[in-house]
Amino acid sequence: MVIAFSGHGSESHELVTHDADLADLTGTAIPLDLLQDWFSRIPAKRLILFLDCCFSGGIGAKVLHVDTKARSIMSTDARLAQLAGAGRIIFTASAATEPAYEHRRFGHGFLTHFLLEALRGAEEVVGGGKISLYRMLEHVTNRVKAAASQVGKLQNPTMRGTIDGDIEWPVFVAGAKYQAAFPSRLPASVSSDLSSLAAAGFPSALIAAWGGAIPSLNAIQTTAINDFGVLDGENLVVSAPTSSGKTMVGELAALRSVLVASGPCSCYRSRLLSPTSVVISRTSMVPSVFGRWKPLVKPMTSRRCFGANTILAS
Predict the structure, then answer these.
(1) Which one of 37, 112, 195, 280 has the lowest number of neighbouring Cβ atoms within 10 Å?
(2) What's the pTM?
Protein backbone atom coordinates (compact mmCIF):
# COMPACT_ATOMS: atom_id res chain seq x y z
CA MET A 1 0.00 0.00 0.00
CA VAL A 2 1.23 3.47 -0.89
CA ILE A 3 -0.07 6.66 0.76
CA ALA A 4 1.06 10.17 -0.11
CA PHE A 5 0.34 13.55 1.46
CA SER A 6 1.43 16.86 -0.04
CA GLY A 7 0.46 19.96 1.86
CA HIS A 8 1.23 21.71 5.11
CA GLY A 9 2.24 20.34 8.45
CA SER A 10 1.75 22.27 11.66
CA GLU A 11 4.16 23.12 14.42
CA SER A 12 1.97 21.02 16.70
CA HIS A 13 2.53 17.89 14.56
CA GLU A 14 -0.62 17.70 12.45
CA LEU A 15 -1.20 17.18 8.75
CA VAL A 16 -3.28 20.18 7.69
CA THR A 17 -5.81 18.98 5.13
CA HIS A 18 -7.59 21.29 2.67
CA ASP A 19 -10.74 21.40 4.82
CA ALA A 20 -9.00 21.91 8.17
CA ASP A 21 -10.20 24.78 10.38
CA LEU A 22 -7.22 26.94 11.31
CA ALA A 23 -8.99 27.94 14.50
CA ASP A 24 -9.44 24.30 15.47
CA LEU A 25 -6.52 22.25 14.17
CA THR A 26 -6.86 19.80 17.06
CA GLY A 27 -10.35 18.89 15.94
CA THR A 28 -10.02 19.15 12.17
CA ALA A 29 -6.43 18.31 11.18
CA ILE A 30 -4.75 14.88 11.36
CA PRO A 31 -2.34 14.51 14.30
CA LEU A 32 0.62 12.20 13.74
CA ASP A 33 -0.58 10.21 16.75
CA LEU A 34 -3.88 9.52 14.97
CA LEU A 35 -2.05 8.66 11.76
CA GLN A 36 0.01 6.12 13.71
CA ASP A 37 -3.21 4.56 15.04
CA TRP A 38 -4.62 4.31 11.54
CA PHE A 39 -1.42 2.71 10.32
CA SER A 40 -1.59 0.05 13.02
CA ARG A 41 -4.92 -1.10 11.59
CA ILE A 42 -3.65 -1.59 8.02
CA PRO A 43 -2.92 -5.30 7.43
CA ALA A 44 -0.66 -4.70 4.41
CA LYS A 45 2.73 -6.40 4.70
CA ARG A 46 4.37 -3.49 2.92
CA LEU A 47 3.36 0.11 3.43
CA ILE A 48 5.02 3.24 2.05
CA LEU A 49 4.13 6.78 3.14
CA PHE A 50 5.34 9.91 1.34
CA LEU A 51 5.04 13.12 3.37
CA ASP A 52 5.69 16.30 1.40
CA CYS A 53 5.29 18.68 4.31
CA CYS A 54 7.26 19.80 7.33
CA PHE A 55 6.64 20.62 10.94
CA SER A 56 9.12 23.45 11.39
CA GLY A 57 10.56 26.24 9.26
CA GLY A 58 10.32 29.85 8.25
CA ILE A 59 8.88 31.84 5.37
CA GLY A 60 8.38 29.69 2.26
CA ALA A 61 8.35 26.41 4.15
CA LYS A 62 5.43 23.98 3.99
CA VAL A 63 4.63 24.47 7.67
CA LEU A 64 1.55 26.25 8.95
CA HIS A 65 2.15 28.76 11.75
CA VAL A 66 -0.72 29.35 14.15
CA ASP A 67 -1.03 31.78 17.01
CA THR A 68 -1.29 29.08 19.65
CA LYS A 69 -0.11 25.51 19.71
CA ALA A 70 -0.12 22.66 22.18
CA ARG A 71 3.06 21.79 24.00
CA SER A 72 4.52 18.44 23.04
CA ILE A 73 7.10 16.39 24.89
CA MET A 74 7.72 14.17 21.88
CA SER A 75 9.82 15.43 18.97
CA THR A 76 8.77 15.25 15.33
CA ASP A 77 11.55 12.74 14.67
CA ALA A 78 10.29 10.44 17.44
CA ARG A 79 6.73 10.60 16.15
CA LEU A 80 7.77 9.76 12.60
CA ALA A 81 9.98 6.94 13.85
CA GLN A 82 6.93 5.37 15.51
CA LEU A 83 5.13 5.36 12.15
CA ALA A 84 8.00 3.49 10.52
CA GLY A 85 9.32 0.01 11.22
CA ALA A 86 9.76 -3.36 9.56
CA GLY A 87 7.75 -3.51 6.34
CA ARG A 88 6.98 0.21 6.53
CA ILE A 89 8.85 3.10 4.95
CA ILE A 90 8.19 6.73 5.79
CA PHE A 91 9.81 9.05 3.24
CA THR A 92 9.69 12.69 4.28
CA ALA A 93 10.49 15.79 2.24
CA SER A 94 13.07 17.01 4.75
CA ALA A 95 14.79 16.18 8.01
CA ALA A 96 12.64 16.55 11.14
CA THR A 97 13.88 20.03 11.99
CA GLU A 98 14.23 21.30 8.40
CA PRO A 99 11.73 23.19 6.25
CA ALA A 100 10.32 21.56 3.11
CA TYR A 101 9.91 23.92 0.17
CA GLU A 102 7.71 24.27 -2.87
CA HIS A 103 8.26 26.09 -6.15
CA ARG A 104 5.61 28.03 -8.00
CA ARG A 105 6.82 26.88 -11.41
CA PHE A 106 6.50 23.24 -10.38
CA GLY A 107 3.07 23.69 -8.84
CA HIS A 108 4.22 21.22 -6.19
CA GLY A 109 6.62 20.81 -3.33
CA PHE A 110 10.08 19.71 -4.45
CA LEU A 111 9.47 16.17 -3.17
CA THR A 112 6.16 15.71 -5.00
CA HIS A 113 7.52 17.19 -8.23
CA PHE A 114 10.54 14.92 -8.43
CA LEU A 115 8.59 11.89 -7.19
CA LEU A 116 6.11 12.31 -10.05
CA GLU A 117 9.02 12.81 -12.44
CA ALA A 118 10.57 9.54 -11.28
CA LEU A 119 7.31 7.59 -11.43
CA ARG A 120 6.86 8.69 -15.04
CA GLY A 121 10.07 6.92 -15.94
CA ALA A 122 13.12 9.07 -15.22
CA GLU A 123 16.08 7.33 -16.88
CA GLU A 124 18.02 7.07 -13.61
CA VAL A 125 15.38 4.91 -11.88
CA VAL A 126 14.19 2.60 -14.66
CA GLY A 127 15.73 -0.80 -15.26
CA GLY A 128 14.20 -3.43 -17.51
CA GLY A 129 11.10 -1.32 -17.94
CA LYS A 130 10.50 -1.24 -14.16
CA ILE A 131 11.01 1.40 -11.46
CA SER A 132 13.18 0.32 -8.54
CA LEU A 133 11.85 1.77 -5.26
CA TYR A 134 15.22 2.29 -3.60
CA ARG A 135 16.78 3.67 -6.76
CA MET A 136 13.82 6.02 -7.07
CA LEU A 137 14.16 7.24 -3.49
CA GLU A 138 17.86 7.92 -4.04
CA HIS A 139 17.09 9.80 -7.25
CA VAL A 140 14.36 11.90 -5.62
CA THR A 141 16.63 12.69 -2.66
CA ASN A 142 19.41 13.95 -4.92
CA ARG A 143 17.07 16.01 -7.08
CA VAL A 144 15.35 17.64 -4.09
CA LYS A 145 18.66 18.53 -2.44
CA ALA A 146 19.96 20.02 -5.71
CA ALA A 147 16.78 22.01 -6.37
CA ALA A 148 16.75 23.44 -2.85
CA SER A 149 20.43 24.32 -3.14
CA GLN A 150 19.77 26.26 -6.35
CA VAL A 151 17.46 28.63 -4.46
CA GLY A 152 19.82 28.90 -1.51
CA LYS A 153 17.95 26.50 0.77
CA LEU A 154 18.85 23.32 2.62
CA GLN A 155 16.44 20.39 2.33
CA ASN A 156 17.39 16.76 2.95
CA PRO A 157 14.68 14.13 2.34
CA THR A 158 14.76 11.37 4.94
CA MET A 159 13.77 7.70 4.90
CA ARG A 160 12.71 5.83 8.03
CA GLY A 161 11.89 2.12 8.29
CA THR A 162 12.83 -0.87 6.15
CA ILE A 163 11.33 -3.25 3.63
CA ASP A 164 13.07 -6.53 2.87
CA GLY A 165 14.17 -6.79 -0.74
CA ASP A 166 13.52 -4.27 -3.46
CA ILE A 167 10.13 -3.26 -4.80
CA GLU A 168 9.56 -2.69 -8.49
CA TRP A 169 6.72 -0.72 -10.02
CA PRO A 170 5.72 -0.22 -13.66
CA VAL A 171 6.38 3.14 -15.26
CA PHE A 172 3.39 5.39 -14.65
CA VAL A 173 1.65 6.75 -17.75
CA ALA A 174 -0.92 9.55 -17.63
CA GLY A 175 -4.25 8.13 -18.74
CA ALA A 176 -7.57 9.64 -19.76
CA LYS A 177 -8.70 10.27 -16.16
CA TYR A 178 -5.48 12.12 -15.31
CA GLN A 179 -5.66 14.17 -18.50
CA ALA A 180 -9.26 15.12 -17.77
CA ALA A 181 -8.51 16.08 -14.16
CA PHE A 182 -5.24 17.93 -14.79
CA PRO A 183 -5.21 19.27 -18.35
CA SER A 184 -2.70 21.99 -17.42
CA ARG A 185 -0.20 19.32 -16.33
CA LEU A 186 0.04 17.74 -19.76
CA PRO A 187 3.29 18.47 -21.61
CA ALA A 188 2.99 20.89 -24.49
CA SER A 189 2.98 19.29 -27.94
CA VAL A 190 2.96 21.16 -31.25
CA SER A 191 3.32 20.60 -34.98
CA SER A 192 4.98 22.82 -37.54
CA ASP A 193 1.66 24.65 -37.93
CA LEU A 194 1.82 27.89 -35.91
CA SER A 195 -1.84 27.49 -34.94
CA SER A 196 -0.86 24.46 -32.84
CA LEU A 197 0.71 26.90 -30.34
CA ALA A 198 -2.83 27.77 -29.22
CA ALA A 199 -3.03 24.44 -27.38
CA ALA A 200 0.09 25.48 -25.43
CA GLY A 201 -1.66 28.62 -24.19
CA PHE A 202 -0.43 31.25 -26.64
CA PRO A 203 -3.12 33.83 -27.54
CA SER A 204 -4.33 34.11 -31.11
CA ALA A 205 -3.04 37.69 -31.48
CA LEU A 206 0.50 36.59 -30.67
CA ILE A 207 0.29 33.61 -33.01
CA ALA A 208 -0.97 35.90 -35.77
CA ALA A 209 1.95 38.26 -35.18
CA TRP A 210 4.40 35.37 -35.51
CA GLY A 211 2.56 34.28 -38.66
CA GLY A 212 3.39 37.59 -40.26
CA ALA A 213 7.11 36.91 -39.80
CA ILE A 214 7.58 33.14 -40.22
CA PRO A 215 5.52 30.62 -42.22
CA SER A 216 5.77 27.79 -39.68
CA LEU A 217 7.77 26.30 -36.82
CA ASN A 218 10.89 24.51 -37.97
CA ALA A 219 12.37 21.24 -36.73
CA ILE A 220 14.57 22.89 -34.09
CA GLN A 221 11.58 24.67 -32.57
CA THR A 222 9.19 21.72 -32.56
CA THR A 223 11.90 19.43 -31.15
CA ALA A 224 12.66 21.92 -28.37
CA ILE A 225 8.97 21.88 -27.41
CA ASN A 226 7.97 18.25 -27.95
CA ASP A 227 11.15 16.40 -27.00
CA PHE A 228 12.89 18.74 -24.55
CA GLY A 229 9.96 20.44 -22.80
CA VAL A 230 11.06 24.03 -23.29
CA LEU A 231 7.47 25.21 -22.74
CA ASP A 232 7.19 23.10 -19.57
CA GLY A 233 9.99 24.85 -17.73
CA GLU A 234 12.87 22.56 -18.66
CA ASN A 235 16.39 23.89 -19.17
CA LEU A 236 17.72 23.77 -22.71
CA VAL A 237 20.88 24.72 -24.57
CA VAL A 238 20.37 25.30 -28.30
CA SER A 239 23.42 25.25 -30.53
CA ALA A 240 22.75 25.81 -34.23
CA PRO A 241 23.97 27.96 -37.15
CA THR A 242 22.92 31.58 -37.61
CA SER A 243 19.33 32.08 -38.82
CA SER A 244 18.33 28.54 -37.85
CA GLY A 245 15.49 29.59 -35.56
CA LYS A 246 17.10 29.27 -32.14
CA THR A 247 16.11 32.81 -31.08
CA MET A 248 12.49 31.80 -31.66
CA VAL A 249 13.01 28.95 -29.17
CA GLY A 250 14.05 31.49 -26.57
CA GLU A 251 11.10 33.72 -27.44
CA LEU A 252 8.67 30.84 -27.01
CA ALA A 253 10.12 29.95 -23.62
CA ALA A 254 10.21 33.51 -22.33
CA LEU A 255 6.72 34.43 -23.50
CA ARG A 256 5.30 31.15 -22.19
CA SER A 257 6.69 31.99 -18.74
CA VAL A 258 5.05 35.41 -18.85
CA LEU A 259 1.71 33.93 -19.91
CA VAL A 260 1.78 31.22 -17.24
CA ALA A 261 2.75 33.67 -14.54
CA SER A 262 0.32 36.41 -15.51
CA GLY A 263 -1.62 37.47 -12.44
CA PRO A 264 -1.61 39.88 -9.52
CA CYS A 265 0.81 37.79 -7.45
CA SER A 266 3.25 36.98 -10.21
CA CYS A 267 6.94 37.23 -9.41
CA TYR A 268 8.10 35.92 -12.79
CA ARG A 269 9.97 38.07 -15.27
CA SER A 270 11.50 37.43 -18.67
CA ARG A 271 14.56 39.29 -19.85
CA LEU A 272 16.42 39.40 -23.14
CA LEU A 273 20.19 39.24 -22.78
CA SER A 274 22.19 40.20 -25.84
CA PRO A 275 25.73 41.30 -26.68
CA THR A 276 25.80 44.97 -27.66
CA SER A 277 26.92 44.05 -31.16
CA VAL A 278 23.74 42.11 -31.84
CA VAL A 279 20.75 43.83 -33.38
CA ILE A 280 17.42 42.17 -32.64
CA SER A 281 15.47 41.48 -35.80
CA ARG A 282 12.29 43.43 -36.40
CA THR A 283 10.52 40.11 -36.82
CA SER A 284 11.13 39.28 -33.16
CA MET A 285 8.08 39.50 -30.91
CA VAL A 286 10.19 40.25 -27.84
CA PRO A 287 10.55 44.06 -28.27
CA SER A 288 6.86 44.51 -29.03
CA VAL A 289 5.73 42.37 -26.11
CA PHE A 290 8.23 43.40 -23.47
CA GLY A 291 8.68 47.01 -24.54
CA ARG A 292 12.01 48.73 -24.13
CA TRP A 293 14.89 46.56 -22.97
CA LYS A 294 18.52 46.90 -21.93
CA PRO A 295 21.30 44.38 -22.55
CA LEU A 296 22.17 42.81 -19.21
CA VAL A 297 25.72 41.91 -18.27
CA LYS A 298 24.89 39.63 -15.35
CA PRO A 299 23.51 36.14 -16.11
CA MET A 300 20.17 35.16 -14.61
CA THR A 301 19.90 32.24 -12.21
CA SER A 302 16.62 30.92 -13.55
CA ARG A 303 15.65 29.06 -16.73
CA ARG A 304 17.61 30.02 -19.84
CA CYS A 305 17.57 29.32 -23.55
CA PHE A 306 20.94 29.88 -25.15
CA GLY A 307 21.49 30.72 -28.79
CA ALA A 308 24.74 31.64 -30.48
CA ASN A 309 23.74 35.29 -30.61
CA THR A 310 21.10 35.88 -27.97
CA ILE A 311 20.10 34.64 -24.55
CA LEU A 312 16.52 34.81 -23.36
CA ALA A 313 16.03 34.21 -19.67
CA SER A 314 12.80 33.87 -17.76
Answers:
(1) 37
(2) 0.65
Instruction: Give the whole-angstrom CA distance, residue 96 versus residue 100.
Output: 10
Q: How far apart are CA 304 and CA 293, in angstroms?
A: 17
- Report the candidate in 227, 226, 236, 234 with the shortest Cα–Cα distance to residue 199: 226
Q: Which residues, 6+ apart, have CB-to-CB distance to 223 below 8 Å?
A: none
| 84 and 117 part of one domain | yes
Please list the pLDDT of the chain residue by residue as tens digits (314 residues): 999 998 888 888 888 888 989 888 888 999 888 888 888 888 888 999 999 988 754 434 454 444 444 434 456 666 666 666 678 888 999 887 888 888 776 778 899 989 998 998 888 899 889 999 999 999 999 999 998 998 888 999 999 888 888 889 999 988 888 878 777 677 778 999 999 999 888 889 889 988 988 999 999 999 999 888 888 777 788 888 888 888 889 888 888 877 765 444 444 555 656 554 444 454 455 555 444 333 333 333 334 333 333 344 43
Question: Does 181 map to a domain?
Answer: no
Domain that holds residue 247: 187-313
Note whether 34 and 88 are same-domain residues.
yes
Number of domains in the chain: 2
Nearest to 51 by CA among 63, 60, 40: 63
Kindly write down the DSSP assignment for every residue of 267-285, as one continuous string. Answer: ----EEE--TT----TT-S
**Residues 149 and 201 placed together within one structural domain of the fold:** no
Same domain, 119 and 217: no
- Whether residue 63 lies inside any domain: the answer is yes
**Cβ atoms of residues 94 and 53 within 8 Å:** no
